[in-house]
Amino acid sequence: MAHTTAGELFELAIAAEQAAESLYLGMAELFAEYPDVAEFWRKYAGEEVMHATWLRNIRDSADPERLAEDADPVQLRNAQHVLQASIDHMLAQIDNLEEAYQLANDVENSETNAVFEFLVTHFSEDKKVRAFLRSQLREHVARLMLSFPAQFKHASYRREIKAAHPQKS
């Protein structure tokens, strides 16, 4: 049975961040009629790009021998679980802004961030960088609740905002 390395876990984690980016860009398209919401989702997607970049930087500066070690089995399962979900399927299931908001909340409280934090904690050699990245992650998760456009803060109103799915031919 082949073993998955820590380096491969980094690749899975980077792919998970890229999947989250795609999800949020898709949400921006679904709610393009609401510029504040679309811009929020685009910025959120941009933060996922930064997460992937930070993971690449940590991986690239890590000791190659450590990257060749077996991946943590729990984090490996977490990363694999995240990547099983189809972004297109998730987007197709969104009927309104409340569903998009709740999906984002689920994604941000999923295994993706657990894997990110694990890799930062175990592979970043610089304590200041670790503290900075953990802080960035906490701020990113909090931004969903604290920085979502004010006029869309209430769930009852978000339910009224319908997703604009492209017409299927």
Describe this structure in words.
The chain is mostly helical and 169 residues long. Helices cover 74% and strands 0% of the residues. The chain has nine helices and no strands. The chain has helices spanning 6-30, 35-61, 64-67, 73-84, 87-92, 97-108, 111-123, 127-146, 155-160. The longest helix has 27 residues, at 35-61. It is elongated. The mean pLDDT is 92.
Arithmetic mean of pLDDT: 92
Number of strands: 0
Using the CA coordinates, give the radius of gyration. 17 Å
Q: Which structural class do the helices and strands define? A: mainly alpha
- Number of DSSP helical runs: 9
Distance N to C terminus: 45 Å
H/E element sequence: HHHHHHHHH
Uncertain regions: pLDDT < 50 for 5+ in a row?
none
Largest sheet: none
Determine the fraction of residues in helical runs and give it as a percent range. over 70%
The 3D shape can be described as elongated
Nutshell version of this structure?
With 169 residues, the chain is mostly helical.
Name its key features.
169 residues, mainly alpha, 9 helices, 0% strand
Helices, strands, pairings?
Layout: H1 6-30, H2 35-61, H3 64-67, H4 73-84, H5 87-92, H6 97-108, H7 111-123, H8 127-146, H9 155-160
Helix pairs in contact: 1-2, 1-4, 1-7, 2-7, 4-7, 7-8
